[in-house]
Design a protein that fits this description.
single chain, mainly beta, ten-stranded antiparallel β-sheet, 7 helices, elongated
Length: about 450
């Protein structure tokens, strides 16, 4: 009898059972071959971070495509914000009026402010005055929210127009207001002589309408822009995304053999300057409150944190450093509560003062970071600021550290993202948040916790 096949089969079964009887835990795979002194171990430590409210001084870079108008008192904190604005108007390249304007006549001239949203009471009454700018604004300059509009127009003169308004126009029917085509707007009539002068100039000096630069420098009425000055009112603040300078007329449609009305528009766009002037009142009590810290936008309050770099171990590698900021819930129950800042930027104080926004910097996850508010946990979380801490440690060691080397600001911001794939987004623009937001954070006398995970070789 040939026993060789049975011998081979027995050998295979023996090998199989030897394999499956081995420990399937691979945690020590490789480490058994390493000297015990090379084993990497992890250690976590928690440090106290002290924070304080930091005044923006009403002065942040006013780089926004929106304008803001109104005055509102925050029911939670009693702080007041007031805003009005300057707007220039863009002239499309080689602008032209229709040749078939009937009798070369202009029906009316007006300004239109389109309101996308507002905070507060839509029935609050306001008055604004409109002044034409007398000084051309430098298109290459940076303008801030503490801009003094009187440097660009003469408010001692009679305004070119005045308007009493509410944000909810009660002169139109409810059915019209609920229509999908309805756009909430404030219409400010201008003297019709302005439209007529501009129409006449197009006949005599078409070069004035070559582009925005030629238009602004033409000397025509309103060409430099307007200051929309808030004269009175409290209870609401409007977000205005479109401002139009309109000239209205009747003209003939030869193909359709009929007359109709038309409008030539000059709009405030990103190609020209829009500068909102903000003023905050009653912020002092929030800045002096040491039981917590605050965030208020626009141009109100940031939170400043001092990182304990001199206490953080520098001999081990920092794998992760997480900072969590917790928001207190509102105390006052009001129908006009402010929104919570959606995004926070963590940036070094020195970098902010050196023109972070002016130089179009973005959060790079190295020394500046972006966090989105988590409504479930009521927190802002910066998951890993390890590189920032390592950078600060290096500066401390090599003697290049400044007096503010370990201080960071937490600033409400409005990011702009661009989709690179279906699931990812790239940050392409970052500016101050100019919407009305407010939040009170755990901090001040109560330190915020910084959790750090180290790795090191076992001794």
């Amino acid at each position: 009898m040939n026993l060789k096949p049975f011998y081979i089969l027995a050998l295979l079964f023996t090998t199989f059972f030897a394999i499956i009887s081995c420990d399937d835990n691979t945690d020590t795979l490789g480490s058994d071959m390493m000297p015990s002194t090379d084993i990497v171990v992890k250690e976590s430590r928690t440090y106290d971070v002290f924070t304080q409210s930091y005044s923006a001084g009403d002065s942040v870079l006013a780089r926004s495509s929106k304008s803001y108008l109104g005055q509102f008192t925050d029911p939670e904190t009693g702080t007041i914000i007031k805003s009005d604005f300057i707007a220039q108007f863009h002239c499309i390249d080689d602008f032209a009026f229709p040749d078939s304007i009937i009798d070369n006549s202009i029906l009316s001239t007006d300004l239109r402010l389109f309101v996308t949203k507002y905070v507060g009471d839509s029935l609050a009454t306001f008055k604004i005055s409109v002044y034409p700018l007398t000084k051309i604004m430098n298109p290459d300059a940076d303008y801030y929210t503490n801009i003094d509009p009187t440097q660009y127009c003469d408010t001692s003169e009679k305004p070119i127009a005045e308007k009493w308004f509410t944000l909810s126009d009660r002169t139109i029917s409810d059915s019209e207001r609920s229509s999908s085509s309805y756009k909430n707007k404030i219409i400010i009539p201008l003297p019709n002589t302005i439209g007529k002068q501009i129409r006449a100039a197009w006949d005599s000096n078409p070069e004035y309408f070559k582009d925005s630069e030629a238009w602004i420098n033409s000397g025509l009425p309103g060409c430099k822009g307007f200051y929309f000055k808030l004269e009175s009112g409290d209870g609401a603040l409007a977000y205005i995304n479109i401002v139009q300078f309109n000239i209205n007329y009747r003209y003939h449609l030869p193909d359709e053999k009929k007359d109709t009305t038309g409008t030539s528009q000059f709009a405030a766009t990103e190609e020209v300057i829009q500068a909102t002037h903000f003023a905050n009142y009653n912020l002092e009590k929030l800045l002096e409150d040491t039981s917590s810290t605050y965030l208020k936008s626009p141009a109100g309050i940031f939170t400043m944190a001092t990182l304990p770099i001199d206490q953080i171990l520098s001999t081990d590698t920092i794998n992760q450093a997480k900072l969590v900021l917790t928001r207190y819930n509102d105390i006052v129950n009001s129908g006009f509560r402010l929104d919570i800042p959606k995004y926070l930027l963590l940036v070094r104080l020195d970098d902010y003062n050196k023109g972070f926004f002016e130089n179009y910097h973005l959060a790079d996850a190295n020394t500046s970071y972006l966090s989105m508010f988590n409504s479930t946990n009521n927190t802002y979380t910066f998951n890993n600021i390890a590189h920032l801490i390592s950078t600060m440690q290096k500066e401390l060691r090599d003697g290049s550290a400044t007096a503010n080397y370990n201080k960071v600001l937490l600033i409400p911001v409005e990011p702009t993202f661009e989709s690179s794939t279906v699931s990812t987004k790239n940050l392409v623009k970052l500016c101050h948040d100019f919407s009305m937001t407010s939040a009170r954070l755990v901090g001040g006398n109560t330190p915020v916790k910084l959790d750090i995970i180290y790795s090191k070789f076992a001794q």
